[in-house]
Protein 1
Amino acid sequence: MTDAQTATIGASTFVKGRIEGTDDLVIRGRVEGTVKLPENRVLVAPGSRVKADITARSIQVEGRVEGRLTGGSDVTVRSGGQVQGDILAPRVTLDNGARFSGNVDMEQLPSKSRPAKA
Amino acid sequence: MHRPMPPAVGLDEPHSTLGLKELLRGLPSDRRHSVLDLGPASSGNVQFFSSHSCRLYIADLFHTMRQRGGPPPEQAIPFGREIEATLPAGSFDLILCWDLLNYLSRDQMQILGRHLASRSHPGSRLFALIAPHGEIPERPQRFEILSPDSVRYSSRSTAHRPAPGYREPELNRWMAPFAVESSFLLRHGIQEYILVHKPAAAS
């Protein structure tokens, strides 16, 4: 996720509010609010802190998230990542060393929130 | 005799399980079941319970409590408050304690039993692994279900401590209203227990 179609919130940046768009997103700083990118990928990078509900096609957590994660395709919590909240996605991966507390629901999401893939 | 518990330092080993299959047997198939996992999160458990049409809540009790302010205190009242703050609301059909009970005192176990009783219903079942003797890792292990017959134990602890060696009568007394329904002594020395939430006796 480092091409031109990727937006980045830098390590020293704090965003409070609603984030929407059509680019992939890398979060390296702090975010509070809502992240809604249902067609795109979101990476919560190591060292970042997010207090927000995130909706995306694919979500990968390597930092800390407090909130509900809704992945149209998948949600992955990598080793060192921490999630406190619920995860809803057809595919959920929790690496050894990932910390998670909350509900996991792997029921199929409604088709509206699942992006069509080319 | 001092016999060490097999899943030793840094090991990442699959072990057979007899209790897991038994735990799932008898669950009515006409609805989704809710499962409370008190252990650390793992993909295998998520996949396993998802394939059994269960709704899974992962509490990671021991680590969450440590994160909230250090190791579980011996005093009953702070421990009860921490438990209350950590456990989710709801009524669960299955509760996975894994090896957590090995790390609790009698008082803590009684408090945990009461809090779990309020988050379950008569007929709810609880799964626990008890080390009857020897040593256990310093902290609870991570358990990942590989199949209904096999669970991977993994521990990052380099230190060990003596196992409290709890027995069935103690579990019945301290975990009330849960009572032992069945138990299985595994080849590697661990005793698997299935406890069931008994209905209150009619007065």
Protein 2
Amino acid sequence: MDLEYGPEYQEFTKEVQSFCKKYEGLSFTDGSNNPLGSSGGSGGPKMSRSEWQKTLIENGYFARSVPKEYGGYGGEADILKSRIIAAEFSKSNTPGPMGGQGIDMLVPTLLEMGTKEQKEAYIKPTLHGEMIWCQGYSEPNAGSDLASLQTKGELVGDEWVINGQKIWTSTAQYSQMCFCLVRTEPDAPKHAGISYLLIPMDTPGIEIRPLVDMTLKAGFNEVFFTDVKIPASNIVGKRGEGWAVANATLGHERGSLAPPDATMNRVNMLMHLMKEETLDGKPLIEHPIYRDRLMQIQGKVLAQQSHALRLLSAKLNPGADVKIGKMIQKLTGTELRHELEGLAIDVMGEIGTLYENSPHLKNDGTWQFIYMYFLGLIIGGGTSQIQKNIIAERGLGMPKEPKVEGA
Amino acid sequence: MYFGLSEEQSFFQDNVRKYLEEYATIDNIKHIANGDEKNLSAEIHQGLLNLGINALLIPEEFGGLGLDLLFAAVVSEALGGGVGPIPFIAPYVMAPTAIKHAGSKTQQENYLSKIATNEYRFGVGFTEFIGKRNDAGITFSDHSLNGRAMFVLDANDATHLLLADEKGQIFVVDAKSSNIEIVKLTTVDKTRQYSEVICKNLEAELLENSSDSINPINQAIDAGRIMLAADSLGASQTMIDKAVDYAKERKQFGRAIGSFQAVKHMCAEMAADLEPCYALVWHAAHCHDHSPAEARLMACHAKAHVSEMAKGIAKKATEVHGGMGFTDLLGLHYWFKRIGLNRQILGSPELVREEAYKTQV
């Protein structure tokens, strides 16, 4: 056991800290609201979001290992440096890079499986925040059983003609592009009949309808495709290989949904709240039952933080067996975050139910919002029940359910 | 940066594990539990002493191996995994830790070197400092102890005991004195020994540095708690392994019961609950020696959290076995009961979490 990063990394940490200091309180000239980026601060330098993305890339704090020719920094992948960058930005009042499914999922997919033309056309504008993507995977009848999707793509001449419907499509209303799973080989077995297509969202025949979720925000959309025509070359991988292309990066999304450091920040915030808020004249933290519940959760989060260190170490030192350790992250991370946000509501009682811009609202209503939002994350990206199947079947080697005829 | 066990630690753990697989078979555990093979436990103990488990934490200057607590934690994990029917936590972890922190140079010399050579074996009774039940309690005056200590660990076969009063002062007493009465307590866990100790004007030696600081006793309790967490971790892993194996074998309705989601999901939940406990226990053990600022909080949470996870696993793993899990025949209950004891000794989860909170104010 050695939890020191070493002198090279201490030096690097100082570099990142001084960069963060320089841009502290940075605000954006093109508006503070962007669904994919942080809102920015005040009192610091001003620039556009795209300029900020470029500044981060030039300094190696974003897209660090993406080759220069595709708009990245062109450095060696360095797991510890990535962790230091994330940690220092989260501690400072300096906005981090934009996220979203284009940056988190499409870019790694193209780097691994895209053609040279695709890499050149898409990666740079995506990293610069100039091209936003949405993910067209789920359908009304293809949720947990995603591979049964039915949106149809037919090659007519040198164009794909697409018909069907996608659902749970976040950020579709802001997106220039959609990476989409489409059934192109209707006669092949279900996993082998899917292709991974890249669809410009301004193509005629696309209709977007917002889908309001329980938080009362339109976090999702339904997207309808009627005779949507795109060039035949807008495919990643070969015809029928879409399932493998999509799965190459799906694991990445699952691991990153509920990082334990962020959950620990919320534990600390809740502890602070419980020292400020009173019940019958006594701070909430002095009520033993609430205090014990907070301590229970703190213990769980500490376990997940230690676990994250173990997984980080396994990336640096290949050979460690952490197969089950990686599989449990989505399940345990999202469930724990939901439990924590729910505890905050319980300790506040009636005040915990206040929402939107009500009087007496605490912490901008984030506890209620995130409590509900994380129920969405427990369901999305593979439900907790699907995660348990994965852990049991792939992790523990337990037998699968017998196949149902025709499914 | 490396978060995990060293090759030496894994190797030593494997040796303990293999030794227990060979000698502490379920049949032997049954004999020991039923009390019909008095020497068996001593033989198994001797075999592990030959590996050096008594000297792990003793500094090299006193003839020990000078290893850190993580090393002891991986041994404890292996002992839990095999329900090792031997004393470990009190004589080889808590006692050396207490003497190291509370003893004067002379006291360290006197006792640590003799633990390393196995001339002295300590039982430990600190319960009254952690949480005094009913009328238990020890008082010290005129170089002697009076009163009663409950749940003294590993007092049987001990040459000496470490007892503590409510203030956290630690005393060395002769376990063979005529002024001491050691009453064996029967718990559900038959793989280890728990006693009540009654002292009447019992001559006692105060460990000098415990007279004005509770740090030494807390160091020993933290170390003991991390060992209990590690023991439950190992015991839980064995229960999961047995449940998963059984669910793959056992057939009902024409298929392995492990193919039913009701069963499969119980197994997945157990694995998801336990997996982060490895990192928590290792991390807590590491902090104990190398990161004093976090050490107490980590030890408390390791004890409380692993106890909670292990309790759920002990129940679910038994349920996966159906009726067989409930029988004495299968012997799964030895792990269930060991986990049950680990949860209560040196502070139940609620007590320990309250201590965790107090480290933060």
